[in-house]
Amino acid sequence: MKKNLKALLILGGAMLLAATALAKLPAPSDEAKAKAAEAAAKTAWTGKLEAYQLCKSQDKVAARTKPVVKGAKPAAPASTCVDPGPFVYVPAVAGAALPAAAASAVAAKKS
Prior knowledge:
Elements: H1 2-21, H2 30-65, H3 100-110
């Protein structure tokens, strides 16, 4: 009898938690959307920065491990690392006019 009661209480608690988890949340405010967009931009920039730092460190290791041939000039390292620069976030303005290139691409798709 105690097992059935315990199982019933656990099932009831789980149903209560499921009901609260499925409750519809209100739509985020414009401020929350802007913060989320900024956080996404910061995350993307951080990924680019980490890739740049990895590229630079790989170049350093490659420069140290290249075999040197006697009498040959060492080749200048051909680095393909792209510095992302400092983080600058420019929020998108709702209803802003599209740049000319984007507007012409949209027009081309429609026709």
